[in-house]
From TrEMBL:
Keyword annotations of the record: ATP-binding, DNA-binding, Nucleotide-binding
Molecular function terms, GO-annotated: 3'-5' DNA helicase activity; ATP binding; DNA binding
Name listed for the protein in its UniProt record: Primosomal protein N
The UniProt record lists the keyword Protease: no
Start and end residues of each stretch annotated as Disordered: 130-153
Pfam family, one: PriA_3primeBD
Keyword Lyase: no
GO biological process, alphabetically ordered: DNA recombination; DNA replication initiation; double-strand break repair
Domain Primosomal protein N' 3' DNA-binding, first and last residues per copy: 7-100
Amino acid sequence: MLESLLPQLDRLFDYRIPERLAPDARPGVRVKVPLRSAGRMTSGYIVEVTAHADFSGTLSELEEVVSAVPVLTPEVWALARSVADRAAGNASDVVRLAVPPRQVRVEKAFVARRAKAAEAAATAAVVAAAGNTESPESADPSGDTPNRTPIAGYGDNVIETALYRRARLSITAIPTVRQTSAGEWVGAWAETMAAMAAFTLGLGRSSILVVPDYRDQDQLETALRAHVDDADIARLDARQTNPERYAHFLSCLEERPRIIIGNRSVVYAPAFELGLIALWDDGDPLHDEPLSPYVSSRDVALIRQAQSGSALAFVSHSRSSEVQRLVELGFVDDVPQNPKFLPNVIPTSAQVSGDAFAQSARIPSSAWMAARKALETGPVLIQVARPGYAPVLACASCTNPAHCLVCDGPLRTQSKNSPPSCVLCGAIAAQWQCRHCEGTTFRLIGQGSARTAEELGRAFPATRIIVSDGTRSLTDVSEAPALVIATRGAEPVAAGGYHAVLLLDGERMLARESLTVAEDCLRWWSNAIALAAPRAPAIIVGVGGELARTLVTWQQNRFASDELADRRRLRFPPAVRVATVKGTPEAVAGAVKELHDSVHGEDSAKIDVLGPVPDEDDFVRSIVRFDYSVGQVVAATLRAAVIRNATSRRKIPGRPANFRPPPSLRVRFDDTEILD
DNA sequence: AGCACGCCGACT
DNA sequence: GTCGGCGTGCTC
């Protein structure tokens, strides 16, 4: 496999292995090979070693084995190929996500340590043979390992049995916090996932646990350390330096079961005897890969599960419509939580309290009183939509929104005494003048986390105020009374759970324009509510209707089912898949025609094309919607069109001799934002 | 990408 | 009759 970005080189090439390289030339190792003419080298990976080449011409010789460590295992290669095929992308792009950059020092240390271990094992084997001792114990195939903690909150052994059967599961997380055996507090979901991984480890198998961000990862790691030895955990995440990441990656290649945790790219980690892939909160957009070919970790997990035969679990408080679809198909099994501790959710319409602060923050009196009461005994969580002080500024005289004089972007205030600055370019609006009425003074609109904190501080003078937002986010707070103001997604875990949770900016959060607003809001709110102590009030302000009813009854699965039904009616994802086709008008028209040619007969109803509409640079854009059943044909057809356009690109007349136009056809599958 | 091959216009 | 322009296509 060549490390090339060119779609026309995204296939296997055969090379002859010279005698001197034969010992190291095994599948998975990094190599350098000649391509096209002498002296030009490309790097790549050996995928297969065979006695007879498929290629009929004369073979070039392998130039160099860069390192003897087989970093691209056959399983991961097969996964990369399937993922690329599904999204009409390059396998080498996927491999780049799967295999971190090589770090020579780290790799040498790994090789040396491994050689030493192998030597020690050989000596031990000799001693064992001489002494005729018992053979080393292997994992008990019958399943139940002694001393493990049961996975609580679900039916007896329901999850254990499912893991043993290697089932695919949608698990409704338990909406509260739990204390680990080491005394630390984490979301119950983390405890559940840790117990699942520990059980799988007891079966002698590895787990891959995928979380959206490092705050979730920290909780999961805390929970895991209470179940297993630290040496059984391997981490792969964006916070690590390159050497750290490579060291942990290499440790996954060892032939012993591990628990591998990290963000979305960890789904590609090599794993010894993979027994479980589990995703926390698969609806979080951080599971969507922003690099080509843009395949989300949910889809990668589904492909990997099919190839490895491992168990698969989607764990969340509110089920994504994608997983709902899989449940309705019968492909994934529903594991409901034991409804013993449902959260105490109270929706409140905007019946504003008489208190001065409550009025300015539009907090209803009942919520205000609940917060005041809860503060006597423990921490209270206040969820707001935005960070900063005043997220929006307007002209004080004409009330029109204020804009940056440099780039015309919107203005905001970061903290109380900081001058207004531009959201986009950061310029400080010094000599600002309104473009509508020549006014020169601002009016602050809305409350960001900092302004909410300041005003709450005034209302509760003796209370500790803690702010957790995008710029400064906390992972946990103590059980002492405090007001914790957090932007959605940045809520810290409180020891013992919050004594009250207030969700303030519901209306504003719902005002965002997106196909998935309702689903996203439900997820943000459910996740915050799940941080409450048992029976503590969770008050949601200014949200009514189906969403409020869903939270009160804690029936997110039914909401997901309704949501999916709506998408079916509209023929929107995930009821169907989508692909964007972008390029010159001729290239797009050609690709669309080929699609109609290859999806024909009774299948033709399974595909429809929206557009083309004009895009930037004389390009046009079409959106193809298609049923999952024709996904392979659609991907293969569009892939062929991309390759053809890359191979024979026409020169534009009247341009400089060496001018190369951009690729005249680009394809992107399953972009969740295109129909917003 | 980047290089070789080939087909057509201008030249000793 | 050949030299070299650049468009077209291939890379094991």
